[in-house]
Amino acid sequence: AASTNRCPVKGCDSRGHVNPSISQHCTLTACPAYRDRTGQPCEPDLSRVPLENRQSLQLFREAQNALASDTEQDMLAHWRMLPSEYQVEQVAIGNALLDVWYKSCLPTDLACVPVLHYCEFCLACFTQRLSLTRHSRKCACRHPPGVEVYREGQVSLFEVDGRHFRAYCQSLCRLAKFFIRHKTLVEGVEAFVFYVLTEADQTGCRLIGYFSKEKRSLLNYNLSCLLVFPNHMRKGFGFLLIDLSYRISQLEGSVGSPERPLSDAGLAAYRKYWTRALLTRLLEHQGTDISVRDLSQETGIHANDIVSTLQSLELLKYWRGEHFILADKNRLRQKLSACLSTYMRLADPACLSWRPADYLTGGTA
User: Fold this and answer.
1) Catalytic site residues?
2) What is annotated as the active site (predicted)?
3) 264-284 helix and 237-252 helix, angle to the nearest 10 degrees
4) Is 245 helix (H, G, I), strand (E, B) or coil?
5) pLDDT score for 29
6) Treating both helix axes as pointing N-terminal to C-terminal, what angle do 264-284 and 329-339 enclose, rounded to 10 degrees?
7) Domain for residue 87, yes or no?
8) What is the CATH number of the domain that holds 82?
């Protein structure tokens, strides 16, 4: 009987103690340690459920347990990668001191101090403020490496190839992992290109955020990861990065979409951007007919994202096997006015000087 109740997760002793370093209850429904937040068993008494329903439930439970087991093992593997003396609680970037939200995969010599100090121009990392001060006196960098592809006032966007500037991109990924829960890319940056957003002052181009993109995406993803650092949030820079990713896709001659799955916050931001872009284009349209394909080609937004957005706005009707867009001007203006209540910083196309890189045109990188 003891063997039948044993949890399949390595490290779980069926009493709710999965791992001392994690200290949480087991997430497998088949395990006696599975409890809700109040400590009570989550599954009700199923003795009176018909047999055929119990068989279906068993199939569902097995699938759920397999998924939970994979998640558990991934989390345990991540914790094993972290050194036991991990102490990082803050990162200093220029004049900003930021509290970290999540743990990042760092070398042992960097993980044993409470504060990490970054050079905001070359992203060199130091454990002591004095070491950063000495480095700053000799560092000749005043902006990210790569090519400047966008400049509007003091705001610039730099295209950084992960193959040519591997150390910089790896350091950027480790820094981003402090603020993104599911950020996993640290190695293998050669397959990505990074677009780094900065704001210039008398010292140099200070880091705001970035988005990364696969050089050759089989699913036409135009954005893999997006981050605006906490000291620059709520200033519209996230929408600016999203808008730039779509404008670059249009210059490539392709229709793009962000990499799935999207987080809740990411989906909310994209849904606001899609809503504004589509409503603006529908109001500008002078003809009587416009299709989802036309909207996709003109905005660079994937057809699936257009359909889901128009459905959420109740502007898409399915009748006799076809979808029709309800483009009543007064209704569109009402929905657009509600969307404009959110501050959204968008790119100026005249300030974008991007051109296809060698890896897109077929040349040698």
Assistant:
1) 259
2) 259 (proton donor/acceptor)
3) 60
4) helix
5) 45
6) 140
7) yes
8) 3.30.60.60
Does residue 213 lie within any of the structural domains? Answer: no
Check residue 315 and give its pLDDT. Answer: 86
pLDDT at res. 59: 67
80 φ, ψ to 5°?
Answer: -70, -30
Percent of the chain with pLDDT over 90: 46
Segments of the chain assigned E as strands: 90-93, 96-99, 115-118, 125-126, 147-152, 155-161, 192-200, 205-214, 221-223, 225-228, 257-258, 316-319, 322-325
Its domain, for residue 122, covers: 77-139
- Are the beta carbons of 68 and 27 closer than 8 angstroms? yes
In a domain, 106, yes or no: yes
Rounded CA gap, 104 and 124, in Å? Answer: 16
Give the span between the Cα atoms of 130 and 139, in whole angstroms: 14
- Asked whether the beta carbons of 350 and 152 are under 8 A apart, the reply is no
Three-state DSSP class for residue 129: helix
What local confidence, expressed as pLDDT, does residue 24 receive? 42
Q: Classify residue 45 by burial, with Cβ atoms within 10 Å: 0-12, 13-18, 19+.
A: exposed
In whole angstroms, what is the distance from residue 255 CA to residue 306 CA? 12
Query: Which stretches of the chain score pLDDT less than 70?
Result: 1-85, 183-185, 287-288, 323, 358-365
Tens-place pLDDT, residues 140-197: 999 999 999 999 999 999 999 999 999 999 999 999 999 988 766 677 899 999 999 9
Q: What is the pLDDT of residue 49?
A: 58
- Beta-carbon count within 10 A of 272 CB: 17
